[in-house]
Amino acid sequence: MPQRPAYTGRFAPTPSGYLHFGSLVAALASYLDARAVGGVWRVRMEDLDPPREVPGAQDAILHTLETYGFEWDGPVLRQSDRHEAYAEVVGRLLAQDLAYPCHCSRKQLEGQAIYPGTCRDAHLDRHDAAIRLRVPDREYAFVDRVQGAFRQHLGREVGDFIIQRRDGFYAYQLAVVLDDAFQGMTDIVRGADLLDNTPRQLYLQELLGLPQPRYLHVPLLTQPDGHKLGKRYRSPPLPAEQAAPLLCRALRALGQAPEPTLEQATPREVLAWGIAHWDAGRIPRQATLAEAQLR
């Protein structure tokens, strides 16, 4: 029987747009962290929300990764192919009364900091309902490899959260936990905007008897107006002809110190340098980083 790799990581983009510089920093951090220890690196397409998906974005994302020199292990996993697994778990949680149907509309919940529990004990019909997970009156804590200790009280700070939307689509929190376990992820490297999602995922892992990976949240790159670099703010896509310089810039964002001559190298040469010199301890220990500072 083949031995399980000591390190398995992944990059999991959402095809609601094309890759931008913020995506590149996250992809590079996860890639180097895996390859520097001889680990496995996978790509997963988080296509949970078809109405928000941009036509052609999936192919464009994969093509950009290839252009920038990234090589992943095994086939690309698409969450759209995993609905049966999600449905089985939602059904099980409902049967165990660990989750419940919720008929509350967004308008009804407007102004509420957390879900007030309106439908928690109402025993409503599942038809035309979202499914919420009951959260315990407990604090969940973990130590992030960059951001340090993080804790969150699920009952007071989050409330019962949705695992399946009213329109039938599955929620990120459920899918990411099931897919990370399914793919044997030992390490999750992603942007700091997902830091406060982690306690919810820890609870789901505990509830479902799944292993807990190590976490590393890299600083989120922000624009001059304070918004994060992202698809919704029309951050520019990654140009193929700028692959090496942008990889070097992404290395600098991660606290690494690439040699200036690498900007004239090939993308794979930049990545090879990054693997040989990777030091996660040099990543800035902060939640956000102004993208303009890296120019």
Automatic annotation (TrEMBL):
PANTHER family (UniProt xref): GLUTAMATE--TRNA LIGASE, GLUTAMYL-Q TRNA(ASP) SYNTHETASE
InterPro entries: Glu-Q_tRNA(Asp)_Synthase, Glu/Gln-tRNA-synth, Glu/Gln-tRNA-synth_Ib_cat-dom, GluQ/Sye, Rossmann-like_a/b/a_fold
Binding-site positions, L-glutamate: R10, F11, A12, P13, T14, E46, Y172, R190
Molecular function in Gene Ontology: ATP binding; glutamate-tRNA ligase activity; zinc ion binding
Protein's gene: gluQ
Gene3D superfamilies: HUPs
NCBIfam families membership: PRK05710.1-3, queuosine_YadB
Family statement drawn from the similarity comment of this UniProt entry: Belongs to the class-I aminoacyl-tRNA synthetase family. GluQ subfamily.
Binding residue positions for Zn(2+): C102, C104, Y115, C119
GO cellular component: cytosol
Cofactor note: Binds 1 zinc ion per subunit.
UniProt cross-references to HAMAP family, sorted A to Z: Glu_Q_tRNA_synth
Broadest EC class assigned to this enzyme: ligase
Cofactor(s) listed in the protein's UniProt record: Zn(2+)
Enzyme Commission number, as recorded: 6.1.1.-
Binding site for ATP: K231
Signal peptide: none
Glutamyl/glutaminyl-tRNA synthetase class Ib catalytic domain segment(s): 10-233
Keywords per UniProt: Aminoacyl-tRNA synthetase, ATP-binding, Ligase, Metal-binding, Nucleotide-binding, Protein biosynthesis, Zinc
Function field: Catalyzes the tRNA-independent activation of glutamate in presence of ATP and the subsequent transfer of glutamate onto a tRNA(Asp). Glutamate is transferred on the 2-amino-5-(4,5-dihydroxy-2-cyclopenten-1-yl) moiety of the queuosine in the wobble position of the QUC anticodon.
'HIGH' region, short sequence motif: residues: 13-23
Chain ranges for the short sequence motif 'KMSKS' region as given in the UniProt record: 228-232
Protein name from the UniProt record: Glutamyl-Q tRNA(Asp) synthetase
An individual GO BP term: tRNA modification
